[in-house]
Amino acid sequence: MHGVTKEIEFPQDVKEFTLPGQTTRLLAASVRWTINRKAYGVGAGFKHDSIPDFLGDGIAVEIDMWTKSPKK
User: Fold this and answer.
1) CA triple 15-18-20, angle to 5 deg
2) What is the three-class DSSP state of 15?
């Protein structure tokens, strides 16, 4: 973001399951973490005229996905 490159680590939750009445195995992954926008130069000089906490520093990132499991 804004010319800043950083390595990130994020917690992940991965599960394999089968839906009731189905035989196809599914793989689900969920990732949730928060980054500090100022660490990437996003809105560092922004100030709202009448609301001091209009833009917080923490940006929540959430990713959910699922796909078929690879064949074993």
Assistant:
1) 135
2) strand
